[in-house]
Specification:
mainly alpha, single chain, Globin-like, 7 helices
Length: 152
């Protein structure tokens, strides 16, 4: 499986075999495991509800959150094995470049991770997400949040 990292293009589409899923049972892509784009749309909606009320993060976003919600949901769907709609519409993700204009220190990183973790946690319980899938998502969010820090 190709791992492009925080600024890379999605290449998470390979099937995997996991002992946690009963030995040779294919788990497919994370996109398939979570039920497709609707999961990422819901995750991002829950995340932005929290961001909208956060005095530290809210100033980093435009007044209208419609665009950022769509972009993040499409990016996550693509990254985890879904359609290439994000790249088709916006080109290469260039995450660090897109976030460079904003001061992102450890407090901002921690707040972002807290809100994304809470959004994911609510869906894990509600949709019965497998722990392996949850762990992969959390690992990625942590790695990506760390990579966005540009101020110490």
């Amino acid at each position: 499986m190709s791992e492009a990292g925080a600024g890379g293009v999605a290449h998470r589409g390979d099937d995997e075999r996991s002992p946690e899923h009963g030995g040779d049972a294919p788990i497919g892509t994370v996109y398939e495991a979570v039920g497709g784009q609707a999961f990422f749309d819901d995750l991002v909606e829950r995340f932005y509800r929290r961001v909208a009320m956060d005095p530290l993060l809210r100033p980093l976003y435009p007044d209208d959150l419609t665009g950022p919600k769509r972009h993040l949901a499409l990016f996550l769907g693509q990254y985890w094995g879904g359609p290439t709609t994000y790249s088709d519409e916006r080109g290469h993700p260039r995450l660090r470049m897109r976030h460079a204009p904003f001061v992102i220190g450890e407090p901002e990183r921690d707040a972002w991770l807290r809100h994304m973790g809470a959004a994911l946690d609510s869906l894990v319980v509600e949709r019965g997400l497998h722990p392996v899938v949850e762990a992969r998502l959390l690992d990625y969010f942590g790695m990506t949040a760390d990579a966005m820090v540009n101020a110490r």
